[in-house]
């Protein structure tokens, strides 16, 4: 075996695999709010109920080659709630619930991102509702489709942790567990 061929072959293999693994890396920096969605489910009188928020803004700096350096932020306009009826929407804006007059937005600001492998990540951050901030951990799955990143995640919040639904609603009429699901769509940069 010619010793000159072996180092050259090794260099070609290393370069090829290095380029291919870099080709798999993607960066996402803009959230397409029109294509994105935030929804929630809960139980009311033991029946499952569904709702959405239609107005929100997100910022993102996510590089799959360096997820620990990623940052994400989200601001939700709480008066954009749709809980299935105008009566429910108006009730949820009142002081016992979201208290929109004093706290019109909910915010999330990431403080850390951990790769779990297979395009799964754990995003830790501060969620603020009604002026109360709690640290939450959000599992997220990234699906890349045609140069678009789709970040799907969900978490369960206890509404009592944020003093949402106090007074007569503090009982079991509405479940304390609120399941939040989101799909953030971001074009690859």
Structural commentary:
The chain has 189 residues and is mainly beta. The chain has one domain (26-187): Lipocalin (Beta Barrel). A hairpin with a 2-residue loop joins β8 (120-129) and β9 (132-145). The protein contains 2 helices and 11 strands; from the N terminus they run αββββββαβββββ. The chain is elongated, with a radius of gyration of 22 Å.
Low-confidence stretches: 1-23
Average pLDDT for all residues: 87
CATH H level, superfamily name: Lipid/polyisoprenoid-binding, YceI-like
Sheet with the most strands: spatial strand order: 1-4-5-7-8-9-10-11-2-3-6
InterPro entries: Lipid/polyisoprenoid-bd_YceI, TTHA0802/YceI-like_sf
Domain Lipid/polyisoprenoid-binding YceI-like: 27-187
Protein name: Polyisoprenoid-binding protein YceI
Keywords: Signal
Properties at a glance:
189 residues, 2 helices, 14% helix, 11 strands
Task: Give the structure's gist in a few sentences.
Mean pLDDT is 87; it is low at 1-23. A hairpin with a 2-residue loop joins strand 9 (132-145) and strand 10 (148-158). Helices cover 14% and strands 50% of the residues.
List the topology elements:
Elements: H1 5-24, E1 27-30, E2 37-44, E3 47-53, E4 56-63, E5 71-77, E6 81-82, H2 86-92, E7 105-117, E8 120-129, E9 132-145, E10 148-158, E11 177-187
Antiparallel strand pairs: 1-4, 2-3, 2-11, 3-6, 4-5, 5-7, 7-8, 8-9, 9-10, 10-11
